[in-house]
Design brief:
This protein is an alpha+beta fold and 291 residues long. It contains six helices and 17 strands.
């Protein structure tokens, strides 16, 4: 990722949650701790089923009197419906602002050239009143921007940025093992810990109760993590649900097939060293785990 590059992610959307109970409402349902989120720090978090399985993941950013929730655009309406289920009598307003704000990514070098920047995951600053923050999952993913559409191209000009193909960014994310596209294929099929959410700073084990907390905490406490979501490299198109085989033994299942494939792989060694650079067989085609 070059310093002068910007990737406009048109497949991302924005929900704004505000109101007197906004913080408590989110704190009671998401996996991360809202006490960490303020004007200078944003976080990555998720919403799980009561059994601890994946439903949605998103960024949470403090904005004015509420919070931006940034997630896949094609999941916006379903996520809003799910949030409304938990709303009950909470004094909160949930708005889809995807038509007013745009998500983009810049390099960490560009971010660090801005006033009030700090080189730490999740660190947040304001540029022309819009939040810029280092990706809280991994610094190698650069810094994210949530910017008013009316100011987008003026800010690009002021920062002397050049618009690049977002597939460049998503390929970096894939190599890092971070799924951001077609995550709907993971819904209710994989536990939050199996999504690498601990490593991606999405779960706070000290915050107390949230939806799915009991099973998540039990898996952590008893070291029951036996599978993980890992990126695959293949010259052929993969099929969702296909077996991943190593030496004629099934070790996993393809959950996301394109354009950036991921599979749920059984964990034998914590670092997956036995599979490193080894050929795997999927639908009679050779594939490898990206490590």
């Amino acid at each position: 990722m070059e310093k002068d590059q910007i990737f406009i992610l048109k497949d991302r959307g924005i929900i704004f949650i505000s109101g007197r109970d906004a913080k408590d409402f989110l704190q009671n349902i998401v996996t991360n701790d809202l006490n960490k989120v303020n004007n200078t720090r944003s976080c990555f978090s998720s919403l799980l089923t009561p059994q601890g399985k994946y439903l949605y993941d998103f960024m949470i950013i403090k904005h004015k009197n509420g919070y931006f929730i940034e997630c896949e655009l094609n999941q916006i309406e379903k996520l809003i419906n799910r949030l409304n289920i938990y709303k009950l009598n909470s004094q909160v307003e949930i708005l889809n602002l995807s038509n007013e704000f745009q998500v983009a990514v810049i390099s960490i070098d560009k971010f660090l050239s801005l006033e009030n920047s700090k080189n730490s995951e999740g660190h947040t600053l304001k540029f022309r009143d819009d939040p810029f923050f280092i990706d809280p999952r991994n610094k190698n993913l650069g810094a994210r921007i949530i910017i008013n559409l009316e100011k987008l191209y003026m800010s690009i000009k002021k920062l002397d940025l050049k618009i690049q193909d977002p597939t460049i960014y998503y390929k970096i994310s894939h190599r890092l093992g971070i799924a951001q596209v077609n995550t709907k294929n993971l819904q209710d099929k994989i536990f939050g810990l199996e999504c690498n959410f601990e490593e991606l700073n999405a779960i706070d084990f000290k915050k107390g109760c949230y939806v799915g907390q009991e099973n998540t905490a039990r898996m952590k406490l008893k070291n029951k993590l036996r599978k993980r979501l890992l990126p695959l490299k293949s010259d052929k198109k993969l099929n969702i649900g296909s077996d991943v085989n190593f030496k004629d033994i099934k070790i996993g299942t393809v959950l996301i097939n394109e354009p950036y494939p991921f599979a749920l792989i059984k964990l034998n060694d914590p670092d997956f060293s036995e599979f490193k650079d080894k050929d795997l067989l999927i639908d009679n085609n050779t594939s490898k785990i990206i490590q």
